[in-house]
What we know:
Elements (H helix, E strand, L loop, with lengths): L7 E2 L8 E2 L2 E5 L3 E3 L2 E13 L2 E11 L7 E3 L11 E7 L10 E4 L5 E5 L15 E9 L2
Antiparallel strand pairs: 1-2, 3-5, 4-7, 5-6, 6-11, 7-10, 8-9, 8-11, 9-10
Amino acid sequence: DLYLSGGVHLGGAGAANKLSDFETGTWTPTGNNFTVSAINSAKYVKIGNQVTLIYYIIGASGGSGAASISGMPFSSAGNGFSVGAINITAANPTPTNIQTRTASSSATISILTADDAAVPGTSVDSGHIIGTQTYFVS
């Protein structure tokens, strides 16, 4: 094992090349307008100010309101949005061309159709939800 107290410079000696923050861990996704009945996996990797989430959850008991996932380990930066990929299988009709989005200064992943319409909880309430989201923090 190698432990460094001041960080590592990659590709050059400038401040922009310094890697001083690397973290991995787990997080607890919570469904909004649906219930998360099982968490098969929910992990994150944080390198500097970039965070990547990977999750595999099971949805149940969805309502008619907009479905989203909260509980992200870090809130997003206040100067931009991020989009992600999601795969949903459910017994109920699921809209096509689904994407995810995290707004500025948010710890929630919105589940949307390609035209930014909210996906209802009833469309994600009886199957697996597998996704990834990469975003930046302050």
